[in-house]
Specification:
It is a single chain. The chain has a domain at 31-61 and 82-176 and 188-215. It is 7% helix and 36% strand. It is built from two helices and eleven strands; from the N terminus they run αββββαβββββββ. The protein has helices at 4-10, 108-116; strands at 21-33, 40-43, 70-82, 97-99, 120-125, 129-134, 151-153, 164-166, 176-184, 190-195, 209-221. The strands form three sheets. The chain has a four-stranded antiparallel sheet with strand order 1-11-3-9. The chain has a four-stranded antiparallel sheet with strand order 2-10-5-6, with no helix packed on it. A three-stranded antiparallel sheet has the order 4-8-7, with no helix packed on it. The N and C termini lie close together (10 Å).
Length: 222
């Protein structure tokens, strides 16, 4: 059974007081942002096992809904941006540290800045009802990530293999808390949309990036 503290905190949002478990949980989904093409991304529409998605991409089991016997109360939302290294529909990871010939285009930080300083996030539940609309994307920092320090070093022509650059960056700051919490009831449709309402724009690298949206909160289940 849920602990008394959890029951008191969420009792007004529970449609079924007999949930057997309550646990800290995250709902996540991942999509690609195509440079100079994407104007809207709709997350939590395609579950794992469909459309080429695996549990590395999403832990959603139904399209736009929770599994039967579940309720989720979201209290935090974060966005993870992963710059890419190739153009086109498919995302190809960019390494945060680059060697030799890759020195000419260290655009990891530039792509992060371009994506983070634009866009609007909309958290929708039910028939088009929006519970959160805010932006730009940089205000939704991830709660964890790789720690690195931008650096560059250049060898002589005779030691070209020693050349490297690293311009890794991520957004930091206070997590974006949802207060009061936003409940997603069983059988309710939900999604998170990222929109670039001013139109498509090119990333500095010209490459396709990957974006993951994570809803953090309490999962109730039977």
């Amino acid at each position: 059974m849920p602990s008394p503290n959890v029951q008191r905190r969420f009792q007004q949002k529970l449609t079924d007081p007999n949930y057997k478990e309550s646990l800290r949980y995250a709902l996540y989904d991942t999509l690609s942002f195509v440079s100079n093409n994407t104007t809207k991304l709709k997350f939590f529409a395609t579950p794992a096992g469909q459309g080429g998605k695996t549990k590395e991409d999403t832990n959603l089991e139904l399209s736009g809904q929770l599994s039967k016997g579940q309720k989720f109360s979201a209290d935090c939302i974060e966005i993870r941006i992963r710059p890419g290294s190739a153009a086109g529909a498919a995302y190809v990871r960019q390494q945060p540290s680059l060697l030799v010939v890759a020195l000419a285009v260290p655009n990891f930080m530039n792509d992060m800045w371009a994506l983070g300083t634009r866009g609007v996030l909309r958290f929708n539940i039910g028939s088009g009802k929006t519970y959160l609309e805010d932006g730009p994307l940089e205000i939704f920092p991830p709660v964890s990530g790789l720690l690195s320090f931008p650096a560059a070093a250049f060898g002589t022509a005779a030691a070209a293999t020693n050349e490297f650059t690293s311009d890794y960056a991520r957004y930091v700051g206070r997590p974006y808390f949802l207060a009061p919490e936003v409940p997603i009831e069983e059988n309710s449709n939900f999604n998170v949309e990222l929109g670039w309402d001013a139109g498509a724009f090119a990333l500095p690298s010209g490459f396709t990036a990957q974006i993951q949206v994570r809803l953090l909160g309490i999962l109730f289940r039977n």
